[in-house]
Amino acid sequence: MAQNYPYPEYKNKVVDCTVVPDLTKISGKSVVITGGAGGMGEEATRAFANAGAFVTFGDLNEEAGKHLEAELYPNARFVRCNVVDFESQKAMFKAAMEHSPSKTVDVAIANAGISKSDPVYKGELINGEPQAPDLATLDVNTTGVLYTCHLARFYFMKHELITGRDRCLIVLSSTAGYADVPGRLIYMMSKFAARAVMRCLRRSTAYDGIRVCTLAPWFVETKLVTPEVMQVIKSKGVKFANAADAAAAMIRIVSDTTINGRCFTIVNREEAVLGYYDMDVDDFPEASRAAKQQSEFLAVSHGA
């Protein structure tokens, strides 16, 4: 017998990513973005502010953040934020609540992330002995994301899901969270973890009304990638995606409240007309053993 939940359950339904988003659905939303002063985060800050949302964005780059705030005023507010510092993130969310016209947080985008040389493959030896690996990538990409999720859920639940309000979480994963990337163990771990956020939280939507999606960008051309690295990658025949299309994918997710539990990959426009598509790889075939196990997990789970 079907249960009566207060909100719609997650359903496996592929999203048509050729649909142009309705920007009127963005206007008036209160949006929080980590890492919002550079790369895809900067494009997202611009896209949401220009669509009429009020954006509170955090970053460590104060100069870039203040410049972007001045450019987008009054629809954007910069808060210096270190995502691995819980109190720093909490201050950013509080600022969003206090200064957004709606006094809410409707959307949170866990965008901040880093990529470094892998410490397991290329770890330092001292006197011929291995040293504890540098876990900065995990700290930012996993712990920082967890802090964002924790704070987003707290602030989402402060308002009712009435007209104009939302509870939408978007987490940045990567195609490295889906593919085998030898030599990038720590980065892959962090991006698989981001994928796990979506896989877990989408099953709680029926209880709390919080919908969650991930983005899995391919190689994206931004100022955060050095020309030397970009040239090496392009020499392998790789075609870069556009950071503005990543922001557009976020807009698409936020603009349609029926979208939940999906991962959009950001690609070159030769592969997708708007630069992104629904990966459709986070569900199991109905008759498979994995699908049966998934059903049993849902039956015994006590965490929601």
Automatic annotation (TrEMBL):
SUPFAM superfamilies: NAD(P)-binding Rossmann-fold domains (SSF51735). The keyword Glycoprotein does not apply. InterPro entries: NAD(P)-bd_dom_sf, SDR_fam. It holds the Pfam family adh_short. Keywords: Oxidoreductase. The keyword Oxidoreductase applies. One of its GO terms (cellular component) is cytoplasm. GO terms for molecular function: oxidoreductase activity, acting on the CH-OH group of donors, NAD or NADP as acceptor. Belongs to the short-chain dehydrogenases/reductases (SDR) family. This is Uncharacterized protein. It comes from Talaromyces proteolyticus.
